[in-house]
Amino acid sequence: MNPKTKNLLIRTLAGAVYIALMITAVFVFPMMPVLLCLAACIGIFELSKLTSGPTDHVGRIVLSAAAIAQFALILQYGIQKSSFFYNAATFTLTGFLFSIPLILMCIGMLMTIAELFRCRPLSVEHIGTALFGYFWIILPLGFVAVMTRICPQVVFAFFLMIWAYDTFAYLGGSLYGRNKMCERISPKKTWEGTVTGLVLTIVLAMILPSIPYFAQVHAPLWNWAVYAIITVVFATFGDLIESVFKRRADVKDSGHIMPGHGGILDRFDSMLLSALPALLFALFVMILK
Predict the structure, then answer these.
(1) Is the terminal CB of the chain with fewer CB neighbours within 10 Å at N or C?
(2) Do 23 and 159 meet the contact criterion of CB atoms below 8 Å apart?
(3) What ranges do the domains of the chain cover?
(4) What's the pTM?
């Protein structure tokens, strides 16, 4: 078999398995926290390699423990019933929000204590990078898991828009991309591809409410259009942020866990920065209106 054909086949199969797992997890709540916890732990190790040391062995352990604790709490909140909240979804969200400052405090405390025992001066960079890892990887993926419990329709739509944008932007850039968007960071990203991806993703988002499953959200078309715009804009910046890390580390991919796709951060980069703003908009404007 031709090497290019073989690589394309491997990439397609790996992508199909990834998409199938994520879609299945939308409909099976306990599956989503488990999958995203695993993704977060692997992403932490990839971040450690990309930052060339600031998040070192101690930081990996602390952040991995924080990820496991965060997703364990989400799983526990999601399956419990409580008379103090009107339903399990609200209980999940409230418990998640209360857990954030506690986990952040633990990360900061443990990293600061670890710095005291190093054979070099106290490094604020180690502590800061560990906290960044929480905000960039663990927190957004945790919120995706929470939103799957609250309203799986908007999470499914979020995934579809991310995947559609990546595909449409790639096709638009390949066919008629001329003007580089940010050549020093991502030489292949063009304005033509980005605009194509944005426009077609908005069209897709406005088609979704015509499907009975997504119509259950009961949101007007303009809500879906804004949802798509927020998702795409922040997804673009998320992709560029990861490109900065890879360029600094002088690597093509963040890892090699997904054949043909690179690492977890390569696959989730668009989602990491867009999850919080997009899903918060969906929660407060489209769901709790």
Answers:
(1) N
(2) yes
(3) 1-150, 152-289
(4) 0.91
